[in-house]
Amino acid sequence: MLILGIETSCDETGLALYDGDVGLLAHRVHSQVDMHSAYGGVVPELASRDHIRRVLPLLEDILAESGRTRSDIDAIAVTEGPGLAGALLVGAGLAHALGYALGRPVVGVHHLEGHLLSPLLARPAPSFPFVALLVSGGHTQLMRVGGVGDYELLGETLDDAAGEAFDKTAQLLGLGYPGGPAVSRLAEFGVEGAYHLPRPMLNSGDLNFSFSGLKTAVLTAAQRAGNLCEQVRADIARAFVAAVVDVLATKAMAALDRTGLDTLVVAGGVGANAQLRERLQEEAGRRGVQLHFPPAALCTDNGAMIALAGLARLRAGAGSRSGSFGVQPRWPLGS
Ligand code: KG4
Ligand code: ZN
Q1: Nearest residue to 186 via CA among 139, 124, 252, 231
Q2: Are 169 and 228 in contact (CB under 8 A)?
Q3: Any ligand 1 atom below 6 A from CB of 157
């Protein structure tokens, strides 16, 4: 079965062709980061307009790359939510128009389910059940994943997401938007121990997180430093990354202890973070835990994870939607 995946929930236009037998045939992502960076964050109306410009050329690109035509597509998976309403509608519009024209089923995918299942794009793929650490721009969650559609929330952030904390720290340090990769790179030049930042909720005894206090601690450190020369910014970035990584890794290991599972998968944009990967690899090696990441390019938003989740849904007997047409900007994963 050849499935087309379409992702337009935020500031990346992602399209992919996934073959149920062969795997991923082609995928393309257009990032709007340069366009939004002038505004310090995503401007929803600009995002929608740019998705409109990009979706069809990207579709032609992946068809050409995989040597397929539109009529080879057997089903279409599209991010139905959560996300920006106007942006989601662009993807849904394309999916349903194609589905109608080709007479193919359209399956709406939850964006977070796409991230959760994205480690299955890696080889070797993890087997169920596993603990998933989902760390994106909007979410920080630990889940027990028993199978497709079987998700138990173990803990989550009570305020900011880890990615949001990276982005806000980047702003405070004058690194622009989005800040995750920039903070991570700058941290490499920081001196270990030059600053020490708090580890919020490290010993809270549950699997929840809180990152808003850390952002305030970064602000206070920056204000105290006064002159934010390159080295001071790098030192603060290093302390920030160390604090986030410490909390994420400690809680992820606690989630494995609590569930009795020995497989951890990491998904979402922050999963691309080099320091987090290194720390988790160390811990996993020590404890005999199997650790899985999506390929780095598929950690952030993309169409491949949506195609894969859509295929899993179709195989699990999900009713395909055609004719009706809607998006769910707010959509709790549990429902
Ligand atoms: O999963 P994602 O692409 O989009 C959402 O669904 O939110 O995650 C985006 C987030 C942003 O906050 C970005 O700063 C962060 O992931 N991010 C990183 C890295 N790459 C992306 N954070 C830390 N280190 C990175 N290398
Ligand atoms: Zn995402």
Answers
A1: 231
A2: no
A3: no
Give CA 99 to chain center in angstroms: 26
pLDDT digits (tens, 9 = 90+) for 222-261: 999 988 899 999 999 999 999 999 999 999 999 999 999 9
* Measured distance CA(120)–CA(172) in Å, rounded: 36
For ligand 1, whether the C-beta of 141 sits within 6 Å is no
The whole-angstrom separation of Cα 180 and Cα 175 is: 9
- CB of 273 sitting under 6 A from ligand 1: yes
CA torsion 189→195→201→205, rounded to 10°? 90
Domain ranges for the chain, please list them.
2-116+298-315, 127-293
Reply yes or no on domain 127-293 having CATH 3.30.420.40: yes
What pLDDT is recorded for position 322? 54
Of all protein residues, the one whose alpha carbon is nearest to atom 13 of ligand 1 is 180
Distances (CA, A) of 331 to 80, 83, 108, 327: 9, 9, 12, 9
